[in-house]
């Protein structure tokens, strides 16, 4: 095994979430997840681009509808915080607040930053001027022209990575559904580079802003918090992940860095959206569409023949016998 320097793997199994007792809608503790990971030494951003390509293939072939792959870079986000004046000890807590922008309005996030986490209000407003931005290569070029960001080492490294990524996903014909979104933070602190998540019009939380998601006029209202998640929309992202170059070394007890990038697909969330999408065309097993009624001396064989013809056509049938005198 010592001669193995790289690996690509996928895995589908039951996983468990380490969460507090109050689990939110669509956020189950025990669920099925499909993972794709690439580890080892490759040219910079090639595995990251390949993961984006896989995401496009998976959700296109699932015919889940329109979807958006939101991407950002942890080094860009950290650099933006530095440029805006966030103290280093508050970087992760402020990042966690920014990560709520897909579910909460800016004023609520700002209140958390200022009142709960003690950030200067002027710094929060400077952060807002950046995290409200989203787009594609146009946004990348805009950020590269920002002299404040170019003077920051972290930002400069992140923008260089994103330039390579856009070059590669365009070559892989995988850039169509990608949105470079500076509000994407992802709460876990082990990400070291590219971060991303996938949303659809059905999975987007109801409070998400139109600038970050694809909207729909047929969003189903979910009123009962005890409903089965398979009946709901607004379950959040259906796929997420990023680059985690330091994580394997922590568990392996190795000093050397092992480059890794990967994605996870929430199987139940995908099924929830597909079920809702096809609900109008689905007939429950207990639903009866046609009653076959026998009036007079109609033979059982004749009724069975009619019912068989209807069953073969995919129609749910029930037989009712009416004896007429």
Structure characteristics:
325 residues; alpha+beta; eight-stranded mixed sheet; two-stranded parallel sheet; 11 helices; 10 strands; 36% helix
Short description:
By secondary structure, this protein is of the alpha+beta class. It has helices at 46-61, 74-84, 91-98, 106-116, 121-131, 137-144, 147-150, 153-171, 247-252, 267-277, 300-312; strands spanning 6-16, 30-40, 67-73, 134-135, 178-181, 194-200, 239-243, 260-266, 290-295, 317-322. An 8-stranded mixed β-sheet has the order 1-2-8-7-6-3-5-4.
Description:
With 325 residues, this protein is α+β, with helices and mostly antiparallel strands. The protein is built from 11 helices and 10 strands. It has helices at residues 46-61, 74-84, 91-98, 106-116, 121-131, 137-144, 147-150, 153-171, 247-252, 267-277, 300-312, and strands at residues 6-16, 30-40, 67-73, 134-135, 178-181, 194-200, 239-243, 260-266, 290-295, 317-322. α3 packs antiparallel against α4, α4 (106-116) packs antiparallel against α5 and α6 (137-144) packs antiparallel against α8 (153-171). The termini are far apart. Mean pLDDT is 81; it is low at 207-233.
User: From the alpha-carbon coordinates, what is the Rg to the nearest angstrom?
Assistant: 25 Å
How helical, in percent, are the residues?
25-40%
Structural class by secondary-structure content? alpha+beta
Strand content: 15-25%
Order of helical and strand elements: EEHEHHHHEHHHEEEHEHEHE
Shape: elongated
Q: Ranges with pLDDT <50 over ≥5 residues?
A: 207-233
What is the overall number of helices? 11
Strand order within the widest sheet?
1-2-8-7-6-3-5-4
Terminal residue distance:
85 Å
Average pLDDT rating: 81
- Classify the oligomer: single chain
Strand segment tally: 10
Characterize the main sheet. Answer: 8 strands, mixed
């Amino acid at each position: 095994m010592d001669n193995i320097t790289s690996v690509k793997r996928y895995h589908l199994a039951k996983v468990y979430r380490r969460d507090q007792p109050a689990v939110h809608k669509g956020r189950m503790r025990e669920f099925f997840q499909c993972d794709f990971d690439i580890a080892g030494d490759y040219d910079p951003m090639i595995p990251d681009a390949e993961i984006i390509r896989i995401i496009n293939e998976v959700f296109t072939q699932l015919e889940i509808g329109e979807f958006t792959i939101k991407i950002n870079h942890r080094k860009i986000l950290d650099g933006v915080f530095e440029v805006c004046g966030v103290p280093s000890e508050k970087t992760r807590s402020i990042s966690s607040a920014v990560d709520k922008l897909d579910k909460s309005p800016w004023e609520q996030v700002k209140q958390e930053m200022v009142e709960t986490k003690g950030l200067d209000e002027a710094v929060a407003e400077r952060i807002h001027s950046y995290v409200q931005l989203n787009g594609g290569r146009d946004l990348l070029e805009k950020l590269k022209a920002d002299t404040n960001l170019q003077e920051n080492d972290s930002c400069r490294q992140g923008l260089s990575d994103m330039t390579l990524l856009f070059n590669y996903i365009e070559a892989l014909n995988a850039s169509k559904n990608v949105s470079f979104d500076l509000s994407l933070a992802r709460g876990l602190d082990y990400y070291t580079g590219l971060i991303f998540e996938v949303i659809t019009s059905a999975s987007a939380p109801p409070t998400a802003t139109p600038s970050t998601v694809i909207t729909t006029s047929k969003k189903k209202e979910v009123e009962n918090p005890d409903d089965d998640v398979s009946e709901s929309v607004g379950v959040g992202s259906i796929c997420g992940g990023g680059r985690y170059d330091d994580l394997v070394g922590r568990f392996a007890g190795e000093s050397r860095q092992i480059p890794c990038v990967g994605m996870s697909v929430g199987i139940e969330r995908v099924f929830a959206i597909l079920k809702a999408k096809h609900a109008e065309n689905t007939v429950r097993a207990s639903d009866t569409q046609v009653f076959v009624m026998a009036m007079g001396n109609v033979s059982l064989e004749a009724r069975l023949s009619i019912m068989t013809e209807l069953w073969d056509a995919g129609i749910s049938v029930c037989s009712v016998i009416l004896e007429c005198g």
